[in-house]
Fold this sequence. Notes:
The structure holds 2 protein chains of 2 kinds.
Chain A: H1 7-19, H2 28-45, H3 47-59, H4 61-68, H5 71-104, H6 110-118, H7 125-135, H8 141-153, H9 155-167, H10 170-178, H11 183-194, H12 196-212, H13 215-219, H14 225-235, H15 240-264, H16 287-319, H17 326-360, H18 364-378, H19 381-395, H20 403-427, H21 431-439, H22 444-472, H23 476-481, H24 489-498, H25 502-530
Chain B: E1 2-13, E2 16-27, E3 31-35, H1 42-50, E4 57-62, E5 65-68, E6 81-84, H2 96-101, H3 108-121, H4 138-151, E7 156-160, H5 168-185, E8 188-193, H6 196-202, E9 205-210, E10 213-218, H7 220-225, H8 230-235, E11 240-247, E12 250-253, E13 256-259, E14 266-273, E15 278-282, E16 293-303, E17 306-313, E18 325-331, E19 341-346, E20 351-353
Parallel strand pairs in B: 3-8, 3-9, 6-7, 7-8
Antiparallel strand pairs in B: 1-2, 1-4, 4-5, 9-10, 11-12, 11-14, 12-13, 14-20, 15-19, 16-17, 16-19, 17-18
Helix pairs in contact in B: 3-4
Amino acid sequence: MLPETxxxxxxxxxxxxxxxxxxxVFSGRGGAWVISLSVLMSLLALLPIAFVIGVSVQxxxxxxxxxxxxxxxxxxxxxTVLLVVLTIPLCIALGLALAWLTxxxxxxxxxxxxxxxxxxxxxxxxxxSYAWVSLVxxxxxxxxxxxxxxxxxxxxxxxxxxxxLRRLDPAIEDVSESLGLKPWAVFFRVVLPQLRLAICGGALxxxxxxxxxxxxxxxxRFDTFTTAIFDQFKSTFNGPAANMLAGVLALCxxxxxxxxxxxxxxxxxxxxxxGSAREQRIVRLKLRTTLLALTLQGxxxxxxxxxxxxxxxxxLIDGGAQVWNLSELLPxxxxxxxxxxxxxxxxxxxxxxxAWLSIRSPGPLQRVLESCNYITSxxxxxxxxxxxxxxxxxFARPIYQTTITVLxxxxxMFLPRALVSLRAGIAQAPVELENxxxxxxxxxxxxxxxxxxRLAAPGAAAGAALVFLAVSNELTATLLLAPNGTRxxxxxxxxxxxEIDYAAAAPYALLMILLSLPLTGxxxxxxxxxxxx
Amino acid sequence: xxxxxxHSICKSYGSHRALENISLSVPTGSRTxxxxxxxxxxxxxxxxxxxFEFPDSGSLALNxxxxxxxxxxxxxxxxxxxxVPQDGALFPHMTVAANIGFGLxxxxxxxxxxxAELMDSVALDSxxxxxxxxxxxxxxxxxxxxxxxxxxxxxLMLLDEPFSALDTGLRAAMRKLVARLLADAGxxxxxxxxxxxxxxxxxxQLAVMRQGRLVQSxxxxxxxxxxxxxxxxxxxxxxxxxxxxIEAGWAHCDLGRIPVNNHRNNRSAQIMLRPEQLQLISAxxxxxxxxxxxxxxxxxxxxxNTCTLTVELQTLNADDRPGRSLLVRSSGMHAPPAGSEVHxxxxxxxxxxxxx
Lengths: 533, 356
């Protein structure tokens, strides 16, 4: 989920593998299988993009222009752009401030604050806005959109920035100070530039969520492309208007990807030289600064965790026992778990060939294959869902509105989450170790089983868990694709809030948060481990 | 008898030719060292012998069994060849005992006893058996890796720069331990390194590789004294190389008249001397000697037991060009200080390098 929190392991592994070019498992038929499976997966991943292009061609230039060139699209574009340009800088500022305070100062209870800054991720974005709407019913529009987005998404910046701050070489700061830089200058000229990758990666993640999120903005009546596409789809099922909006949205996402890779630059930000790094130095805060910092941390906590928890608590108490409608809740929980488990299994298995290639025989082909998957996962769930609706209606009627299509959507959307973890896992098992086992008399299959799979298992499990939790909170694609009678916790919650039955929605929200807590713990743990602690 | 026979091995990666026509025989029970700068193809060759890579053409036989030729490729796990890589490559999810026992067919008590025996042979304390690889020092990891490779009683042992990650003192000690252990076990060994002093001290047979080619192989002393070309000469140690005219077994050069090991007359040859073949005598002005020539010490690089001096020769002809500079080894205690005048004479033969 956060590719930038894992570079250390990946880098270490790739250096090993550059040295060890091996035919090993790739000799003969085995290699051909792995490669053709990866190619197949990547072609599948290109379906949504092919859909956008195909529909555009089919619609024809004239209709396309009239559909795209109208005031409504301009309005949505302005809304979306404003949302992005206001939310991302605020998230960066908040994430940076909190990360610096928890990592580089003697703020009282900084370990706890650090956990609390990660915790908002356990609350699905649309539950955040549900909490705000029920606390302040008139809240709506751009202000509300920005407020709830910052609260829901700032941990995506906090996590990588904190991890990088922990990992920076303190010697560089010592050197810059000895060259005559004041502490503030050290921060802005030396520390901040080294955070560039973390900030770019986090900002991209936040940006893609802003473009893709449906529930959050629908609840507070703020129109973005995604909400408009959804409404359009509901009113004129499978109409060209919705498809064209999806095309514009896809272009926005691709533009964001390009902007991020341009901002990333080509500079290296690695610790140069060997030897063990010293401890980071800690800034001692004065009393007044401490109070100010505690206020910031406390405020963030109250807004990001207090509001949802208080609202939920209020609805649960008000609703009493009768909101726990077990005959509906339990099937929803069961279906969520089933879909989550199936999605995690399928996605992890599908990621194996690509992850394998990217570690064991990196090259141009493998990079192309991998980027196909990343591009698709950057597309909003609604675009993927529209693509699958259209394609299944026209070309695969039997699987239209079946669980297979839902799982296919999950596969396309969440493959990179499994891929990143799995890749780190396989990287734990450099090909050298497998070679060692073979030279000690184990057949290639046995060596794979005893060494590589054994060492990659934790990474695969982490990837599967990430996919599982992503599936269990997924709303947009599930709403569009799920067969009649399928109700997950997220769609159940959505149905209740659509009927303005906020009390009945509360148990669904609570279950989702409880299911998401392990995800948050996992991410927190992962970012600590990357820093070597 | 030869244990390993390599015949015309070639291997390319795309347009890059990693190995070109390599042929080498490794006698049974010997220690062969393949030495060369990084990128010379020596590790590729070693991995090919282990069975991790396969040649594009050529053949490879061990104890008379053909491992690779045009028609067959015996996979690594059927070769019974031990391999110790640079970083040890211990299995991180297994204890020391499990790592060492990995290649053993025995089970239960017999296995435990064999593991204990192997640990003892590489001087590892038995209390280490239950430790994890990350709890060991670099030297200990290497010893576990060695014991693991010895466990299956390999027909051939391959060592890929196994000492390069260790610090200087430990490196020499490990080298001795490994040499003795392998000699006791009677295992034919091939070691790959880029460190020439390690190569010279470990080898019975030395093979020098450069740019994918096997440049020269033979006894280490022979290669040191009689290298095929200047590059090999300089790779194996410091050398004094200068132009000379060869006539009837004598070289005429800036150092005067030196006997050579080659009787072919040649007007423009290159000769090579090792710095320890040059001898300095303090020569106050006025004292004349027959052989050799005079010079001035311009630099003195004190290195403890030996001292490397730079000596500028006095030109015999009258023009103002500065004379040739030579490196000369001298014992650290009695080295003449910089600025002193010396007389340079030579010991033994000079070696005539082949034409480039």
